[in-house]
Structure formats: C-alpha cells, structure tokens
Amino acid sequence: MSSAVPSADRVTTGPITGSTKAYLDADDLRVPVRRIRLSTGEHHDVYDTSGPYTDDAVAVDVRRGLPAARTPGDRGTTQLTEARAGRITREMRFVALREGMDPERVRAEVARGRAVIPANRNHPEAEPMVIGREFLVKVNANIGNSAVTSSVEEEVEKMVWAVRWGADTVMDLSTGRDIHETREWILRNSPVPIGTVPIYQALEKVDGDPTRLSWELYRDTVVEQCEQGVDYMTVHAGVLRNHVPLAANRVTGIVSRGGSIMAAWCLAHERESFLYTRFAELCAILREYDVTFSLGDGLRPGSIADANDAAQLAELRTLGELVGISREHGVQVMVEGPGHVPMDKIDENMRLEEEWCDDAPFYTLGPLATDIAPGYDHITSAIGAAQIARRGTAMLCYVTPKEHLGLPNRADVKTGVITYKIAAHAADLAKGHPGAQARDDALSRARFAFRWRDQFALSLDPDTAQAMHDETLPAEPAKEAHFCSMCGPRFCSMRITRDLQLGQA
Q: What are phi and psi of 91, to 5 degrees?
C-alpha cells in the first residue's frame, strides 16, 4: 500500500434510516443484508452492498482498510475453471445465499459462461457477487479523478457513498494524477468488486500521447493493477484497424475514450491493435489472478443517429470472437454495450449480443433513449436501462445528471445509483425474479395502512421520502395521519376505501 494517506483518515456514514445491518449465517458463511424492521413486528431483509459503512456508529480507518471478507483460492484457478470442473467454490455458495438460489445453479451458470463472479484473489476485502441474466440485475457506479479536478479523498468518499446506496460494483476511471494511489485506497476500502480501464493509466505514462503506447507498457500496467486487486478490466480489444473508417461519417464519431485511443494508435502505426493481436497473452495474465474481462465497446454509439450502425456491430462481432478465446483460457468474461440507442432498437442490441457473444453477460451504459436532455441524462438512460435489463442485460452502468457535462460529485453519485436501482428493480419485477416483488408489496401494504414510517423505511431512499413528506406536514402526529398534503383529510381515496371496507366488515 502507498505510504501516503488521505487527510480524511476515517470514513463514517452510519445506518440508513429505518434499517440495520444483519447477517444470514450458513456453515462458514456470513452474508450481509439490510434488515428493515416494520411497526407490525415484521422485518424485511434486502440485498446489501454497503460493507461496514451502514453499521451503527462505525468509523472506518482508511489507512487500514477493511478486513478480509474471504480467503482466495489457488493462483491460476478461476471461478470458471472451478465451475467447469464441477466444484462449487465458497464464492459460489456466498452468492447463492445472497441471491436466494441453489449453489448448483450458480455453478452451472458460471460454467456455461452466462454468469461471472469478479473476485481477484488480491482483493479479499470484497464480498462475492454474481453478474448474470438469471440473477438480480446489478448496478455499477463510475468514479475517478480527472486532470481537471478531484482527489484521492474525494474518490474514496464517492466509493463509500455509492455502495451505501446500493452500487454492486464500482469502476475507478481515474485519468488524472496519482492514479495508482487513488486506486489503492479505493480497493483497500471497497466491499464490492472494482473495475478499471487499464489503458487510461497506460496513457498517463506516455504523457497522454496515444502513439507512444506499446504492448509492453500496457501489459505492465495490467499486471500492476492485477497485483493491486482490480476485479475486472475493460479492454477495448474489439476496435480493429478496419473498423475505424466505419465511424468516419458518424454524427458524434468515437465517443469511448479507450476506443479513440486505440483508433489513434492503429492509424498512426498502420498496424492492427496490440490489444487484439496479443489478446491470448492478456488472457494468461488475467487467469493468474482470476480477473474478469469486461470487453469494452470502443465503438459504441454516442448519439441516437449512430445507434446500431456498421461500426458498432462490426466491433460486437469481434467481441464475440474474443469471448470464445477468453473462455478457452478459463478466463471469466462479460461484454459491454451501448450507449445511445432509441427504444425501438434496444431489443436488437440484446438479441445480437446473445447470438454473437454466446450469452456472455451483457453490461450496458444505459442505453440513453434520447439526446435532448443534458442535466437529466440519468433519466434518459434509465428509460433504456430498464428495457434492456428486462430483455436480459445483467449489469447496468449508471449515468448521473452530470453525464456529458462534468465530473460527478457525491450528490450526483447518489442520484445516479438510486435512479439505476429503480431501473434494475423494475427489470427484476418484469422478469419475475424470485422474491423481487416482496418489497413492493410490503411498501404498498404500509401505504394503504398509512404506516408512514414503514413506507419511508421500505423505500430506496428513506431520507428523501421522509423529507418530502415532512416538507408540508412536519409535525410528528402527521406520521400517524390517514392522509398526506396532496389530497388532505377529506379527499384521500385510500382513506375513503378503508372506511368503506370497515363499514362492510
């Protein structure tokens, strides 16, 4: 670990209103849940990613990081190789209990390549989780500094804030100074898998000049990040030299940072991308640490006009080829997807990914369903995200209100995570995921019974729900009232219905 430490030595957040941390125990496993206790005496357990950050009065010493949550397996084995050998790992048992599923089902999905468990053996602080279409839809939150703004302290705080509100993974997309140190502190304090885009750090090592990149420099950067504990890596190996001209007439060109870097390298050297030509060597490195490939969509559409064009689809076909190579080497792999896509083209994206990439887990940015709402792109993207997740996407990369406008702050991170938790849960409901509706039903019963505190506690963001209620009816007795300020005491439909029911009883 770096000898330098953040000035904010401790991170304290505290419990989420109306709930406490609890654990499901089975044999040697201790799986965290957030336990919502209701006024009826019942409780409702929900999936929890917050690590120690929502325990009562816990201040985490950033200089020490979190205690180990697991003991990694043997070097050179992966969750994929173990699953194919018929072995159920501790990580598989952990995620099965977390998801309320049978461990054998988890093993079978990992063995088939339809699910991944990102768990670098050098990141023991992370609690195991699974990404796959048969499981709960997951949400990733992007953080990271830039050359313009932010610091190590701020990025650690953003990570803590993201997992507090339900981010299942976090990607460190730092492009500014102190990339190694920033990533170190994020990893040591993260209870969730951490992803990166190694080419960002490699580019910093050559002062931002893509033409000076080399396979050796990139390889060494990948090893450095594997050694630190990065759980999954975005690799833009599907951007080939002959794909670049296909994007020439686009409205917004190549919008992926990694994609544009590799396109610039290919054109400058008049050679095929080293990420593609040396891909088997990358597989050998990632297998040593059990790092998962997240095959980057470097030619994703950055505007509605460019959706599903020749460049995007040519790259997707190549990603399917790379999925096969990854699996041959025993390396877990998922595929990244668009981007900006209108609603009528979303199903085609999912269908082609399943067909060309042999059902590898799909991980999509949105997609954004329209281009006209800067400042509200968390909404434009959540519309597309809910639809593509219902169709089968396994993980959604959140979008914050700052998308296209600037670097998100802590408040933006929360808004992005909550917005995408809504999209993911809506998809889980539509897919009929076991147990997904239980929380909705519990909240609806509390709403109809005017149990306001239970209604707040069961919501994704209890503090905001209560604050909005209390804005017009702040007095404590109002939390026992059979109305809100919308309809008042005389026009509340649910109060009238309850009175009718009581009268008929």
A: -60, -40
Name residue, tokens 């992005």. Answer: 416
Q: How many CA atoms lie within 13 A of 342 on its CB side?
A: 7
Residue 37: DSSP 8-state: E
Q: How many CA atoms lie within 13 A of 150 on its CB side?
A: 25
Cα 89 to Cα 43: distance, rounded to the nearest angstrom = 30
Query: Number of C-alpha atoms within 13 angstroms, CB side, residue 416?
Result: 33
- What tens digit of pLDDT does each residue of 152-209 get? 778 888 899 999 999 999 999 988 778 999 899 999 999 999 999 999 999 999 999 9
For residue range 355-404, what is the model confidence (pLDDT) as tens digits? 999 999 999 999 999 999 999 999 999 999 999 999 999 999 999 999 99
Q: What is the CA radius of gyration of the chain?
A: 23
What one-character DSSP code corresponds to residue 70?
Answer: -
CA-based nearest residue to 113, from 328, 365, 351, 396: 328
56-72 pLDDT per residue, tens: 756 667 777 899 999 88
359 DSSP assignment: T
Per-residue pLDDT of 262-291, as tens digits, reads 999 999 999 999 999 999 999 999 999 999
User: How far does CA 293 lie from the centroid of its chain?
Assistant: 15
Q: How far separated are the first and last CA of the chain, in Å rounded?
A: 68
User: What contacts 10, CB < 8 A, 6 or more positions away?
Assistant: 59, 60, 61, 62
Spatial distance between the Cα atoms of 379 and 376, rounded to a whole number of angstroms:
6
Which residue in this structure is represented by tokens 């919502």? 36
Q: Which of 174, 268, 267, 276 is nearest to 218 (CA)?
A: 276
CB 398 within 8 A of CB 378: yes
488's tokens: 């008042």
- Distance (Å, whole) CA 116 – CA 110: 6
